[in-house]
Amino acid sequence: MLGPVLLAAARSDSIRRLVSAAPVTRPMVDRFVAGEQLDQCLASVTTLAGRGMQVTIDHLGEDITDRSEALRNRDAYLALCDALAGAGLAEHAEMSVKLSAFGQALPGGHDLAYENVLPVVEAATAAGTTVTLDMEDHTTIDSTLAVLGQLRERFPGTGAVLQSYLFRTEEDCRALAGDGSRVRLVKGAYKEPASVAYQDKREVDRAYVRCLKILMAGKGYPMVGSHDPRMVAIAQDLAERYGRKRDDFEFQMLYGIRGAEQERLVAQGHRMRVYVPYGTDWYGYFMRRLAERPANMAFFLRSLITRS
Q1: Rounded Cα–Cα distance for residues 263 and 216 (Å)
Q2: Does the annotation count 31 as an active-site position?
Q3: Where in this chain does the record put each Proline dehydrogenase domain (predicted)?
Q4: Distance between CA atoms of 164 and 145, rounded to whole angstroms?
């Protein structure tokens, strides 16, 4: 029951102020977010790379309200490209971007988002890395996939994210399972209506497996975004069934979640990519992480009530 409440709270300014001011918040945020500054993020990336892991980096900054914020987010990613190249980390890291951070929800947002993300993809390519377009709520999917299509005309390695809890996702998987296509499959972290998304966890899980079969059987590069041990095991079985070598797909997990499992998969020879967020605009991301993890959610809320 708390999950939907926290997802709604992720967009509340009053709750944002309460959570941000609470003493218990900072240690919890530090678990899921690799610092507010670029140098802190790079330190975490260096540590993970030393453990044999790949990363995908997200500069937090969604739900913007004007074009100047979109430009600041663009510039933050351009600085990240330069920093990765300068630190020799580009071979270990790609970048994840949310088009909402580039102006997608603003007037003329589709063209604006493409205009702002294009130089980031160009810079990433020049630095020797790639970009994956994160997926957000269902109202943005058509625009995001259209931008993806535009980018792939010049940069075919641009990745996409699909969410299994949406009814449309199996068809989207079929469309994106072609040669060279990079697709991260996740279950989904936004509160979606029953008209477009499965509401029952078992249905979401079954849809995830159906989508994963499509991607594993295709000619693209599946990225298995899940912390669920059953989904990890199923992905391993499907990869073997469809003759995929361990460098023909990868696992992805979030920074701060199931670190021991990440280490285990690396030890088995799998490619493991950690989703590393950083930046000052951490609130929405943090609340979604709590909503996904009941134990963390209950602990945080108890502490917040006690200390506030």
Answers
A1: 23
A2: no
A3: 42-299
A4: 16
CA distances from 96 to 33, 171, 241 (A): 14, 23, 29
| Distance of alpha carbon 292 from alpha carbon 185, whole angstroms | 16
Q: Which of these is catalytic: 134, 152, 205, 289?
A: 134
Residue 37 has φ and ψ, to the nearest 5°, of -110, 155
Q: Any catalytic annotation for residue 17?
A: no
Report pTM. 0.88
Q: Are strands 93-97 and 131-133 parallel, antiparallel or unpaired?
A: parallel
One-letter amino acid for residue 70 of the chain: A
Report DSSP letters for 179-227, one per residue: TT-EEEEE---S---TTTB--SHHHHHHHHHHHHHHHHHSSSEEEEE--
Using one digit for the tens of pLDDT, what is the confidence trace for 79-97?
999 999 999 999 999 999 9
**203 has a pLDDT exceeding 90:** yes
Catalytic residue among 74, 152, 184, 288, which?
Answer: 184
